[in-house]
Design goal:
- With about 150 residues, this protein is mostly helical.
- It has one domain.
- It contains five helices and no strands.
Length: about 150
């Protein structure tokens, strides 16, 4: 399963972001491309612990369900509610927002190389180790890049 902590997978995310146009229409959902880039930046901020989170009890924090969502089932298209922690950053300037995402993504990617890395509690999935966080973040980013056809 792909992970953002694999250098080739991380490079592929960057290349896909390069192909994303600010006016690309979503294939599903209501986010604009700019909102999506900010949303992915917020996911990095959560992982790094720069955004305070608390676990919202629910089925997603169950270990088996979490594993199934991360490793087996595709993310639903336009149906899953988004935690407020992932909707804090508002789009400003397209190029600046993409640069900010890249900076945060690179910080998360670098942190994942540390075998002692500790990750912030995910508001839906709870506490995870590096391997699960890397897979979840790759799947999340892939989902949204596909949403805009890249």
């Amino acid at each position: 399963m792909p992970t953002i902590f694999d250098p080739d997978s991380a490079k592929a995310i960057h290349l896909r972001l390069d192909r994303l146009a600010p006016d690309a229409p979503p294939l599903w959902g209501r986010m604009s491309a700019s909102q999506m880039v900010c949303h992915l930046t917020d996911s990095c901020k959560v992982a790094l612990g720069e955004t305070a989170t608390t676990l919202k009890p629910g089925i997603l924090s169950n270990r088996l369900v979490r594993w199934l969502i991360i490793s087996v089932f595709p993310f639903p298209r336009g149906k899953a509610p988004t935690s407020r922690e992932f909707l804090l950053t508002r789009p400003a300037d397209w190029e600046a927002d993409r640069r900010t995402f890249r900076q945060y993504f690179d910080r998360v990617q670098a942190k994942g190389q540390d075998p002692q890395a500790k990750w912030n509690v995910h508001p839906s999935f709870g506490s995870m180790g590096t391997a699960q966080y890397g897979k979840l973040m790759h799947k999340h980013m892939d989902h949204h890049l596909r949403q805009f056809g890249v």
